[in-house]
Design a protein that fits this description.
By secondary structure, the protein is mainly beta. It has one helix spanning about 1-35; strands at about 40, 50-55, 75-85, 95-105, 110, 120-130, 140-150, 155-165, 190, 205-210, 215-220, 225-230, 235, 250, 265-270, 275-280, 330, 345-350, 355-360, 365-370, 405-410, 415-420, 460, 470-475, 480-485, 490-495, 495-500, 510-515, 515, 555.
């Protein structure tokens, strides 16, 4: 009887363990399904969308992409595929991606740029896999994509695709094919749908695509023949000597709209046997798309997004940022200006101070000081603060907000009015008062001093007189206002008020060192950096200063001079963890 009881007890424990294991398996499967959309392979068999093995035989036209109309075994297989991230599905929501990494083994080329926010993105890849043993053994390579989100709890998705090329069996020959393939040039690829050329007209779809910039296709040389610059495949080059824009610029990848249209379409006409004529499409030929003027290929088509500028659009807008030209850059999200209002984000940025944009001269015309691009200058004769001071670079917060936002209102065609944002317009940020652009907004970090903050605190250290080092806080004194156009031209006025704090030392603003506030009433409390290191300042001032409450010695608009007096004894201040 005792043995039977022990047996029953063991069975009960086994049943409990089995149920627990089943629950764990179910939880793991649900978690995997909720992350499957973070990274996927496309243009591959369905079984390999989330990784796996694709096997191809040399010169098999069904999988070997280097096979032509007269296929010949070349002891290699070419695979073309895409890697896409954040492709949401019914069981998997897109997330804000913190990490996107593609690990490529030998023979794999291509690139994928991490999208912003919860946007999706795809990158084109090619893998050339060579057989081994002088064409007698199979060869393999692989590519791995690793994705991680920033939200909590974090989600991970790691997929590995193995590509195998098998040699053509001895005595076998390559099958011929009658399909037509069109080679690609530069950054575009063309797919011709022509199953029965003369039976019905069809379309040709041309897509922009991010190229492989590791491939050199030429070079720029000087009069002596020395190479000045290697030209990358698919890159866009412009400018002359001393151009400040980083080259090459890349043509953005084209995504499909909600109705499945993407890229630019032409149509096949006047077929004769297997030959045909390519003609332009009008907006009516692609009327099923959300914006027909973005997918047709005629010159005389009315362009509702750019009145008075006829012609179908080719590809998405091409951003050409120039981080060396000034301390601010503006990105306008204006896919359909008058269809919905959007935002303009203004960022502080460290300029290239090797560029002179002017000079200060004395009465005789002699140069006293060269003015550097983007530098902040102040003071008079004998000023001890090293000039220029640099405005710190702006970093994004945990929710992806960075810089100062204004909003687009009152659209008329492709023109619009720029209006200030209130804290409610950027309520998704960690600190809305740091990203809005209105003068009357309550500022919880500086009670009694209204106005949205503009950029991180500005440290102005004076190594020759450390007691006079100051920390400057910039606030919006008059709400932002301006005008703009969807072609990227903007005029924006944003008057500021500067609060000057006489704090002393080589790090006059508190800094965030390894997540901990270094000084001030918030010393020792958790913090998050808001700017990159400022060149030339002490190591202690590498991170952006968290906000703090100390005694002010004056406030003045930047266009006026401010008399800075010694700081009175600091008054007690409430501690705030930032």
């Amino acid at each position: 009887m005792r043995r039977r009881q022990q047996t029953l007890k063991s069975l009960s424990l086994f049943a409990v363990a089995l149920i627990g294991a089943m629950a764990l398996v179910g939880t793991a499967r649900r978690a995997a399904a909720q992350s499957d959309c973070l990274a996927q392979f496309q243009d591959v068999p369905t079984a390999a969308l989330n990784g796996g093995t694709i096997t191809c035989t040399d010169c098999d036209a069904g999988c070997d992409q280097d096979v032509g109309t007269s296929p010949t075994a070349n002891q290699s297989c070419t695979f073309n595929f895409k890697i896409c991230v954040n492709e949401a599905s019914a069981t998997c929501a897109a997330g804000t991606l913190k990490k996107v990494k593609v690990v490529k083994k030998k023979g794999v080329t291509g690139s994928l740029i991490k999208p912003s926010g919860t946007s999706s993105a795809c990158g084109a890849f090619t893998a050339v896999v060579k057989t081994k043993g002088k064409g007698k053994k199979a060869g393999t390579t692989k590519v791995k994509v690793i994705v991680q989100t920033s939200e909590k709890p974090k989600r991970h998705d790691t997929n590995t695709l193995v590509l195998e090329c098998d040699p053509l069996p001895t005595g076998s020959s390559c099958a011929t094919t009658t399909s037509t393939s069109t080679s690609t040039t530069s950054t575009t690829s063309t797919t011709i749908v022509c199953a029965d050329c003369c039976g019905s007209f069809s379309l040709i779809k041309t897509l922009n695509g991010l190229p492989d910039t590791t491939v050199n296709v030429g070079s720029v040389v000087d009069d002596s023949g020395a190479t000045l610059l290697d030209l990358k495949s698919g890159g866009l080059y412009f400018g002359g000597a001393g151009v400040g824009v980083p080259l090459p610029s890349l043509v953005p990848n084209t995504l499909e709209d909600a109705n499945g249209f993407g890229g630019t379409y032409t149509k096949i006409t006047a077929c004769s046997g297997s030959s045909f004529t390519i003609s332009p499409t009008a907006a009516t030929d692609v009327s099923g798309s959300v914006h027909p003027n973005r997918h047709c290929s005629s010159a005389g088509v009315n362009n509702p997004e750019y009145p008075g500028k006829p012609g179908c659009l080719f590809g998405p807008p091409l951003a050409i940022p120039n981080p060396t030209s000034s301390t601010t850059s503006t990105t306008i999200v204006c896919a359909d200006c008058c269809g919905s209002f959007s935002l303009i984000k203004t960022l502080n940025g460290l300029p290239d101070t090797t560029v002179n944009v002017g000079s200060v001269v004395d009465d005789s015309g002699a140069t006293l000081l060269d003015l550097k691009s983007g530098g902040l200058y102040f003071g008079g004769a004998g000023v001890g603060v090293p000039l220029p001071s640099l405005v710190p670079n702006t970093l994004e917060d945990a929710n992806g907000f960075g810089g100062t936002y204004t909003k687009i209102t009152a659209c008329s065609g492709s023109s619009f009015t720029i209006s200030p944002t209130a804290a409610t317009d950027v309520s998704g940020s960690v600190h809305p008062n740091r990203h809005c652009s209105s003068a009357g907004v309550n500022n919880p970090e500086y009670p009694g001093k209204p106005g949205c903050l503009f950029g991180p605190p500005l440290a102005i250290p004076n190594p020759t007189s450390q007691a006079t080092s100051t920390c400057v806080i910039n606030r919006v004194s008059t709400s932002a206002a301006g005008t703009g156009n969807c072609n990227g031209t903007t005029t924006l006025g944003l008057p500021l008020l500067s609060d000057i704090y006489l704090t002393g030392g080589l790090a006059p603003c508190p800094v965030c060192n390894s997540g901990t506030c270094s000084a001030g009433p918030n010393a020792g409390q958790p913090c998050v950096s808001e700017s990159s290191p400022i060149p030339g300042q002490s190591p202690a001032a590498k991170a952006s200063a968290p906000r703090r409450q100390i005694s002010s010695v004056g406030s003045a608009p930047p266009e006026h001079s401010a008399r800075v007096l010694p700081a009175p004894s600091p008054r007690p201040a409430r501690r705030r963890a930032v």
